[in-house]
Amino acid sequence: MEVKLGLKENWRQFTLLVIINGFVGGMVGLERTILPQIAEADFGIAAKTSILSFIVVFGISKAITNYYTGAFANRIGRKNLLVIGWLLGLPVPLILIYATNWNWIIAANILLGINQGLTWSSTVVMKIDLVGDKNRGLAMGLNESAGYLAVGIVAFLTGWIASEYGLRPYPFYLGIGFAITGLLASHFLVKDTVHHVNSEIKVSQVQKLKNIFRETTWTNPNLGSITQAGLVNNLNDGMIWGLFPILLASKGFSLGEVGKIVAIYPIVWGLGQLATGKLADILVKKSMLFWGMLMQGIAITAMIYATSFVQFTILSIILGIGTAVVYPTFLAAIADYTHPEQRANSIGVFRLWRDLGYAIGAILTGVTADFFGIETAVVLIGAITLLSSFIIKLRMN
């Protein structure tokens, strides 16, 4: 079977995978604005550590699933993993609608984490397989843009639906549609990309890694720098997801205003990647990663001084731009530094650590917020993000 690599040559399958990843992002957007409020309003949970428990289990289950998606991608097939991911996502919105205690919410987020790990990782690897080495940044920009635009749009929609019709069940009806559509499209329309990988293996000049896990985690200066920054990026995103709505509510903003401010960051993050993904194919990836993480750190630290809707909107935009600069660049750079045969595995290791950042961020910010206050937690995460930018500056080639 003759296959051609490239975006133009594979645009139909590529576009389909972009649309499917929009549904994947929508599943996370369901919770983004309203789950912390549900914790307080429906279940009477006040401790920040307890509220953030849903992000901890989501992050851990997604991280572990990412690793095994990478490890099994060549053995089981990318498409099969994508379909399995959607099957496991089907019960999530139903559990969120009918949950009678917080343990059901935790269970839903374990399933959601597995769904995200299988579906998002599969679409990432398949798109990189399709486009070859010239348009990896653009491919990742389009992929992550679709996913995070969907997160932002659905976060806004659920906030609006909840303010009009209540926290449950109406906001979660969207999720039932996403899961069914994603499953049907993945099963009937997606084709596996194993032949594209085999085609690239024949011509690749990249040296194989001796120990994929260890070198991607830390010992390879380039891969290790990218991985730590990925972890810190999602560590601060875990804080934004769990504490930002509570911080805004504590400053007197209404549920509708909170929904708007919370939605701005992932929408800018999503839209921005349409440009930054292509830039990652042109500019030096090290510089993009340094400046992106630096912008994130500055925006997060400045949040404790903000008081008005306009100020928080500006900071959310800066945070979104910083995240848009690094997010597609992470995956394009990992793909650059790994052999095609090891790519899915290395991306799996990177995404393991990156998404463990959600769990680490939620635990760290929850404990810090409970003992020292929300503002101290925000400053701590801002400082860690700034430190991460300088590790990239000093360690990457």
Which key terms come to mind for this protein?
397 residues; 17 helices; mainly alpha; globular
Helix content: over 70%
Q: Summarize model confidence as the mean pLDDT.
A: 94
Task: Find the count of extended strands (DSSP E, 2+ residues).
Answer: 0
SSE order, one letter for each helix or strand: HHHHHHHHHHHHHHHHH
The general outline is: globular
What low-confidence regions span 5 or more consecutive residues with pLDDT below 50? Answer: none
The value of Rg in angstroms is 20 Å
What is the structural class?
Answer: mainly alpha
Walk me through the structure.
With 397 residues, the protein is mainly α. Helices cover 82% and strands 0% of the residues. The chain is built from 17 helices and no strands. It has helices spanning 11-32, 35-41, 48-51, 53-76, 78-89, 92-98, 102-131, 136-165, 173-188, 194-201, 212-219, 221-250, 255-282, 285-302, 309-336, 340-372, 374-395. Helix 4 packs parallel to helix 7, helix 13 packs parallel to helix 15 (309-336) and helix 14 runs antiparallel to helix 17 (374-395). The longest helix is centred in the last third of the chain and has 33 residues, at 340-372.
Entry summary:
With 397 residues, the chain is mainly alpha-helical. The chain has 17 helices and no strands.
Secondary structure topology:
Elements lengths: L10 H22 L2 H7 L6 H4 L1 H24 L1 H12 L2 H7 L3 H30 L4 H30 L7 H16 L5 H8 L10 H8 L1 H30 L4 H28 L2 H18 L6 H28 L3 H33 L1 H22 L2
